[in-house]
Each structure stands twice: as C-alpha cells, then as structure tokens.
Write a structure and sequence with these properties.
402 residues; alpha/beta; Rossmann fold; 2 domains; six-stranded parallel sheet; four-stranded parallel sheet; 14 helices; 14 strands; globular
Length: 402
C-alpha cells in the first residue's frame, strides 16, 4: 500500500513479480502507474479536510481519512475471498492504521521514514530561517500517525541508522534496518565520458571543462541550495574552466515557502549571487529525465550533496554508485554514507568558504579525486547494491510470514 503507486516499493514489486510465484495486490490512490503482474485496487477519500480543523491536525485528519478509505477497499477484497500473507506499506500517510481491523491475523511490515523532534535534526537547524513560535506544537502533532502506527505493535523497516535513530528508543525493536539499494549497472562509472564531448540536455560539456553538479528534488534550503550558491563565486573565479549543472525543481518539498514576492527559492538565491558569477557557466536545468540525470553524474568532476539533518536523498546513493567525487555536508544523514577523505569530502553545511575550497581541492587534486571515486563506488557495491537489498527484503519477509 502507498497512496502514490508504487512509492518506495517499485524495485520490490518488480522483484516479487519476477520470482513468479506471488499474487501481488497494490492498494493506492488513482494514478497512471502500472507494473506487470500487479493487480491494482484504487481507493478514494470521501471527504477532504474540514476548514474548521485545527491547522496542526489537518495532516492527521487526512491520514485517518486515508485509513478509512483503504479499509473499505480491503474489505471489498476480503469479501471476494482474498486474504494476503503479508501487508507491506508506508506508515507516513496513515493508510495502514485500520487494516488490522480487516485482516487481524495478517502481519504488517510498515515503512517508518522519520520521527520529528523540536530540539534536534532539521527543526531549528538553520539560523537563517528560525522556526515560527507555533511550529513546535505542529511538529509534535506530525508524529501522531507514527505513534499510532507503532502502537499497532507490528513490524517495521527503515533504510538508515539515522532514520531509525529519530524514533524513540522503545520503538527500535519494531524497526529493522533495510538499506535501500540502487541499480549498480545503470548507475556505474564511465571513464570514457571525460575524453569526449558529452551532451547533458542542451549543454555540451567538453573534455577540458570541469563539471560541478548539484541535484535535489527541489532547489531549496533544506537541501543546501543556498550554501551551494554562495560557494560558487569563489569556485568560478578561481576556475575559469568550471561549469555548473544544477538539477531540481522550483517547488518547496520541505520547510517554509520562499518570501512573499519571490517565485521560488531557486530565484531567490540565484539573484543573491548573480552579480558575482558568470551566469553563462551556471546551468539550472530544472527536473530532467533519468538518463540526463545519470549522464550528469557520470560526467561530474565534483558532485555536491548538502542537506539538513533529514532523510538522505536517493541521488546521494546514485552518485556514490556512479563513482562521483562527493562533497557532502557534515550532517548525520550524510555521514552514514560519506566518510571524510575516504568515500568523499565532508564540509560544514553553512561554511560556504569550506564548501568552495573542497570543490576546488577535488578539481585540482586528481589523485585524490580518483581515490574518492573508486572508494565511493566500492562502498556502493558493498552496501547499496539492489540485489543485496532485495535479498535482505526477502529474508525479512520470510522471518515475518511463518
């Protein structure tokens, strides 16, 4: 179950289908997604959030509405004679909360993504954007669905130690570590791209160019866009051969929207440094096809990944698998992947001078860059392979389904 089919379960659903001996039913809201061997069952919420609902409770109300809609869909399945051996889903949306009433004897394996705190991690991390006074009560209430899910006393999984560590200690016994994997064949180094002209969307990168890459779902403070942009004047001034590609949307995935009168965080911070940089060498590409994204990583001379102490992006895993020379922020979610001067360079999130110096070091020290690339790929092969992830997923399911 996931409201946005297939959510985090794309690889696992494909894997189960390829095994050939499973019946797979996926309950979700309507979208155009389709996968071979998957029977989709759609649900629709009968009502939206009431305008009279307290603002802090609207996410909870929506979750409870989803739980009711999913339970109705499951009850129809049960009436048709379908009883699953295991139910897998994401706890963040509330969809799993009532399923125990429909299938009380079926085990649940729920994805626990993040537990919020008012005094650590992402909240109040960035002094440039202090939280509003009313945010803290809202943050506490955001955990309501998490707490209800934990109270089901079922089975859980999460992809990193950092994410499991956000949950209360008493909950850890319910949450297994299941590191998500990437396709190591699709995301693989290609040394040949450095010796020829390479097209990345409309931009042609020549062998003599030094390419710096930055990727986020949206270009916003949570993912360090402001710190990266403020590092660029020094980098571009010292390296006339450097070009920059940024991939990411104009929206706001996390945190507050941009100031009134500003179209996006992208524009807000670009305007801040526009007079200090050569805009002809900075290419903000927006959202791109996956093949364009992969080519950007393959050709990257220095890849910058910054984030608040929050869930690490898939792009970090893919960058390491591709053998990028990564400059990452010294935040806990990144430090679980990047070891300083072994699998990448780590810099303080807010220290734009250090970020710039780290980028320049990678561009100038070719033996260091080569070693970091090699070790990043080796880490991915050891810890982030899709095959290893799926095998551990199989084993976890087998331990639950008796």
């Amino acid at each position: 179950m996931h409201q946005n089919f297939p959510g985090q379960f794309l690889h696992m659903v494909r894997h189960l289908h390829e095994q050939g001996d499973h019946e797979i039913v996926f309950i979700s809201e309507a979208n155009e997604g389709a996968l071979p061997g998957v029977r989709r069952v759609l649900y629709r919420q009968e009502r939206g959030v009431s305008p009279q609902t307290h603002p802090s409770l609207r996410e909870l109300e929506m979750g409870l509405s989803r739980a009711e809609a999913v339970a109705r869909a499951a009850q129809t399945l049960k009436g048709l004679g379908y009883t699953p051996d295991i139910i897998i889903g994401h706890h963040g949306w509330g969809e799993l909360l009532n399923i125990v009433d429909v299938y009380p004897d079926t085990p649940i394996l729920g994805y626990f993504e993040f537990f919020y705190h008012t005094d650590r991690n992402d909240v109040d991390f960035d002094p440039e954007f202090p939280p509003r006074q009313d945010l803290f009560s809202n943050v506490r209430v955001k955990n309501a669905i998490n707490l209800l899910a934990l109270n089901l006393n079922q089975h859980g999984q999460t992809p990193t130690l950092f994410q499991r560590g956000t949950y209360p200690g008493w909950a850890h016994k319910q949450i297994s570590l299941l590191r998500e994997g990437v396709n190591l064949e699709l995301c693989a180094p290609d040394p040949g791209v450095f010796t020829r002209d390479v097209a990345i969307g409309p931009h042609v990168i020549r062998p003599q160019d030094k390419l710096i890459t930055f990727v986020a779902r949206n270009l916003e403070p949570y993912r360090g866009y402001h710190s990266f942009m403020r590092a660029l004047p020094k980098v571009l001034a010292e390296r006339p051969d450097a070009r920059v590609i940024l991939i990411g949307g104009d929206g706001t995935s996390y945190g507050a929207p941009p100031p009134a009168g500003t179209a996006s965080w992208r524009d807000y911070f670009l305007d801040e440094v526009a007079s200090q940089i050569d805009l002809d060498r900075v290419h903000i590409m927006g959202k791109v096809d996956y093949d364009v994204f992969r080519m950007a990583l393959k050709r990257s001379d220095a890849h910058v990944y910054l984030t608040y102490p929050f869930v690490a992006s898939w792009s970090l895993r893919e960058a390491m698998a591709t053998g990028c020379a990564v400059i990452g922020s010294q935040t806990a979610s990144v430090e679980e992947f990047v070891t300083d001067r072994q699998t990448g360079l780590l810099t303080p999130f807010f220290d734009t001078q250090r970020i710039a110096e780290s980028i320049l070091e990678i561009l100038e020290d070719r033996p260091l860059a080569a070693r970091l690339r090699h070790e990043a790929r080796r880490f991915a092969e050891a810890e982030l392979s899709l095959e290893g992830y799926l095998a551990k997923y199989d084993a976890l399911i087998a331990s639950i389904v008796k």
